[in-house]
Amino acid sequence: DIQMTQSPSSLSASVGDRVTITCRASQSISNSLNWYQQKPGKAPKLLIYGASNLQSGIPSRFSGSESGTDFTLTITSLQPEDFASYYCQQSHSIPLTFGGGTKVEIK
Amino acid sequence: QVQLQESGPGLVKPSETLSLTCAVSGFSISSGYFWGWIRQPPGKGLEWIGTIYQTGTTYYNPSLKSRVTTSVDASKNQFSLRLSSVTAADTAVYYCARLRLRLGELSDFDIWGQGTMVTVSS
Predict the structure, then answer these.
(1) Do A96 and B106 count as a contact with CB atoms less than 8 A apart?
(2) Distance from the Cα of residue B95 to its chain's centroid
(3) pLDDT tens-digit profile of B64-80?
(4) ∠B61-B63-B69 over CA atoms, to 5°?
């Protein structure tokens, strides 16, 4: 199985901050990496697919990038509605696997 | 507007079989997408359970494969999950979701149901 390691597991930030979350794959997954946002009691919501493609309807302050087996989700100017948990997911091979999550909290 | 809605018992006894259905509206389940199940134990992360195509082609998480069965009922525009021999470790919120293909390969879950909490307890 491909292991997805997310860091940090949690972070505190203020409105307007630039936030970066990293996901590292245990082996090469090409650009088969997706990012989701999840708010308490709600289903995950797709933000980024194929490492860097913004899902329709998602604000442009969200972006994704890749460097080898390291993938990054960046929020350029954190908004109040962005406080949530974020998960990466690889689709390179079965079983599909998720990272452990990053909780973004208000400082 | 595409919507998915899970349904099924919220309480299942240990050793019994968990059965859930996902009703799809606003989109035909036979329109060339895969459909999947994902679960999330309380306070924990997401775990992919399995995925099915309209033709019946399935992919399962090896960690659950011996206990999982999925099926599609195109006439009702819904798909289902059965998980046998459940234990307390199967207590989780269960989500159904649409799984897109990208460049012919499985990709992302773009539409999710709201989730349903299933507790395994006697």
Answers:
(1) yes
(2) 6
(3) 999 999 999 999 999 99
(4) 55
CA angle, residues A105, A67, A19, in degrees to nearest 5: 20
Q: Which residue of B has its CA nearest to A39?
A: B114
DSSP letter, residue B95: E
Report the distance separating Cα A18 and Cα A78, nearest Å. Answer: 6
Strands A19-25 and A33-38, sheet pairing:
unpaired
Q: Cα(B65)–Cα(B11) distance, rounded to whole angstroms?
A: 22
Dist. CA B63–CA A95, nearest whole Å: 9
DSSP bridge partners of B118: B92
Look at residues B66, B69, B87, B70 and name the one whose alpha carbon lies nearest to residue B79.
B70
3-state secondary structure of B29: coil
Nearest CB among A49, A95, A100 relative to B45 is that of: A100
Which helix H or strand E contains B100, and what residues bound it? strand B92-102
In tens, the pLDDT along B19-71 reads 999 999 999 999 889 999 999 999 999 999 999 998 889 999 999 999 999 99
